Structure prediction request, 93 residues.
Amino acid sequence: MTIIALLGVKAFYLLIVWLASAIVAQWLSDRKGYGEKPGLVTGLTLSFLAPIIWLLIPAKSDSRWKLQGVFGSGDGRTVAQMRADLEPEEKSS
Prediction:
């Protein structure tokens, strides 16, 4: 009985690592401007390698990663407000 119980605990810990890596990969891909689905797919298929891969993939120019930084700016502005500040103001003549 002890062997089965130990196997169950190891399987549970591997399940937690697998799901946590999928969550982190999904969050990173969303912050970098690729959406949540590509990160979720890589996280579920590649397990603990997916967050490392998403850290190496470059962020898109208008993504949250580029505009707000890695963890967010903290100044309360949304991404849409930051994008509007970056665009040159069009003057009507």
About this structure: The chain has a mean pLDDT of 82. Residues 2-86 form one domain. The chain has one domain: 2-86. The longest helix spans residues 2-31.
